[in-house]
Amino acid sequence: MKVYAHRGYSGRYPENTMLAFKEAEKTGCYGIELDVQLTKDGEVVIIHDERVDRTTDGTGWVRDFTLEALKKLNAAAVWNGKYGFEPIPTLEEYCRWVKDTDMVTNIEIKSGVYYYEELEEKTLALVKKYSLEKRIVFSSFLHSSITLLRKLAPEIPCGALVEYDDLGNPGYYCEKFDFQYYHPGVKALTEEMVKSCKEHGIPLNVWTINDMGALEQMYEWGVEGVISNYPGVCKGWIDSKK
Ligand code: G3P
Ligand code: MG
User: What pTM was computed for the model?
Assistant: First the structure.
């Protein structure tokens, strides 16, 4: 079972920062999941929320900040000084780092709340610029975004992200709409849904696996990947099963 670090090693480090990504790599996990949005001046940046308020010392919408202004915010602010200053990374900075590792990256296109113009195209251009096509999985809650990416880059697999109101018969759905993975939330996932995916040859990457009970259940069901805030713990447990 593969382990993706959710927003990097976000259980122990500031989420979606280079620090969290580098610490995730040290655990030996398979991949990193991160979220992308666009600044006012059209730069692809790595941040989960559409607003900066929860994770930084700033306030406002990501789309109202230029990259220069966004870079002044501290993405480690909520850790009470433990990690000093960590900037919000651009996707380009991340690509420049990850290209020299063997990590796979699950890029989640955050287009479902505010539909950013050209976010898919700009994200894809960076992936291509750094020749990362073979080590990317795109995903989005907005399935039209990944449908577009399938058209623009058929060589890059996509995962259909589904919230806690999971879809029945997901294997058929993914096969029919040409999505290579199913990315369900763990809370409503059933063994029947896992079986549906298996019948249609669709691997699952399940989020967010942050407790041992869920990890053991996923392992038992034969799920292919888990997305966790604690990649080191997951990796250690899975390795101990071998
Ligand atoms: O991609 C899996 C997971 O990250 C989806 O939810 O809200 O954490 O981006 P969220
Ligand atoms: Mg995400």
Answer: 0.98
